[in-house]
Write a structure and sequence with these properties.
Elements lengths: L4 H37 L4 H8 L3 H8 L7 H10 L4 H5 L18 E3 L5 E5 L9 E8 L4 E4 L7 E8 L1 E6 L2 E6 L3 E5 L4 E5 L5 E8 L7
Antiparallel strand pairs: 1-2, 2-3, 3-10, 4-9, 5-8, 5-10, 6-7, 6-9
Helix pairs in contact: 1-3
């Protein structure tokens, strides 16, 4: 057996330390990607997430770029701000099952300014940068005003009950149950519930879609 007694005693420890460091880097990288995907799913800027979580903007940026290993307290604050369990944030994406189930309680909900339109984020978080979809429930008179998405984005709204109206750049169109409206959403756009009854729809947003002329 070669090497000194000190080498023989310390080498396994050094190996374990390298394994721990490598594992921490892998987990940190997955965590950063997850935080970024969740933040974008909520259309939050770094500044907005920092304000809601109490975690410095610079720290969040470092986490997303895999430049730091956050403390458990920091992860907890971010998970609370993003309305997901800490277990979901820490989950290893490569080990996710083929069939994934999300409970109603774990489905994030966005609410319009008037409180009458609710969007359940039912899309897959991994596709949020190029494909998003929502379940829309609107009370009579409810209105959802949206800022422009990135250039070339297209939104598809399929009404399942009630009547919804979409206005884009001064052009307005209505759809009833079974009908679908598709429109450019890279400019300000509004969805309204114009019937006497509540309305429901499935909304799909395709980012960077071919620009419709």
């Amino acid at each position: 057996m070669s090497g000194t007694m000190e080498d023989q005693l310390t080498t396994p420890d050094r190996g374990r330390q390298r394994d721990i460091l490598t594992g921490a880097q892998v987990l940190s990288g997955q965590l950063g990607k997850t935080i970024q995907r969740l933040r974008k799913a909520y259309n939050l800027s770094l500044s907005e997430l920092a304000e809601q979580s109490g975690v410095a903007k610079s720290i969040i940026s470092q986490i997303e770029r895999n430049e730091t290993n956050p403390t458990l307290a920091t992860i907890w604050r971010l998970s609370q701000a993003l309305d997901v369990s800490i277990e979901r944030v820490l989950a290893t994406s490569d080990e996710e099952p083929f069939i994934e189930k999300t409970s109603r309680a774990d489905t994030p909900i966005l609410v319009s300014d008037d409180g009458k339109v609710r969007l359940a984020i039912v899309g897959w978080i991994k596709t949020v940068e190029w494909l998003q979809w929502y379940e829309v429930v609107a009370d009579p008179g409810g209105q959802l005003d949206s800022d422009p998405h990135q250039r070339g984005s297209v939104e598809s709204l399929t009404v399942t009950s009630g009547v919804l109206e979409v206005e884009v750049a001064g052009t307005t169109q209505r759809a009833r149950a079974g009908e679908t409206l598709r429109y450019r959403c890279d400019r300000p756009h509004t969805v309204r519930c114009v019937g006497a009854e509540p309305a429901k729809a499935i909304m799909v947003v395709i980012m960077k879609a071919a620009v419709m002329e």
